[in-house]
Design a protein that fits this description.
By secondary structure, this protein is an alpha+beta fold. It has four helices and two strands, in the order αββααα.
C-alpha cells in the first residue's frame, strides 16, 4: 500500500507537507501566522495578518513542538544566565544595580542572537502559499513587537 493509498484509506486525501510520507491529520493543520505592513497612520502601524494552513501529520507536529520548546529554553537561558551572573558579580563588587543592568543588556543581546540562529528546520516554509507570500513582502514576525 503506497502513502497516497493509505491517505485515501483513512478518508484523508492530503499528505503531510513536512514529511511527505504520512497522511495529514484531518482537521489539525499547522497554522502559520504571517504579517504584512500596510503603512503608518500617525503613531499607528497598519498591518494585515493571515493564517496559512499547512497539512501536517501528528508525528511531524510533535517534532515541531519539541523544536519550539528547545528554542524557547535556549532563549530563556540566554536571558537568565547573564542576569544571575551580573547580580552575583555586583554583590561581590558592591555595584548590584550596574551589574544587573549589564546582565539584562547582555541577556537581551544573547537572546536576540539565539532567537535568530536557533531555529527549526521547518519544511513548511516551502509550502507554495507561504513561498508566494514571502516573495510578496509578508513575514513571520508580528510588526511592532
Amino acid at each position: 500500500m503506497t502513502a497516497s493509498s493509505k491517505a485515501s484509506a483513512t478518508g484523508n486525501d492530503e499528505m503531510c507537507f513536512d514529511c511527505g510520507v504520512r497522511a495529514a491529520t484531518p482537521g489539525r493543520p499547522l497554522v502559520v501566522e504571517m504579517y504584512r505592513v500596510l503603512g503608518h497612520s500617525g503613531r499607528r502601524l497598519a498591518f494585515k495578518e493571515v493564517q496559512v494552513h499547512v497539512p501536517i501529520c501528528e508525528i511531524c507536529r510533535l517534532e515541531e513542538n519539541s523544536s519550539e520548546m528547545r528554542r524557547n529554553r535556549i532563549v530563556g537561558a540566554c536571558l537568565l544566565i547573564p542576569l544571575v551572573a551580573g547580580i552575583a558579580f555586583g554583590i561581590s563588587q558592591g555595584e548590584i544595580f550596574r551589574a544587573a543592568l549589564f546582565g539584562i543588556g547582555a541577556g537581551f543581546v544573547l537572546s536576540v542572537i539565539a532567537r535568530a540562529t536557533v531555529g527549526h528546520k521547518r519544511r513548511s516554509r516551502e509550502h507554495p502559499e507561504i513561498k508566494s507570500r514571502l516573495k510578496g513582502g509578508w513575514t513571520f514576525d508580528r510588526p511592532g513587537t
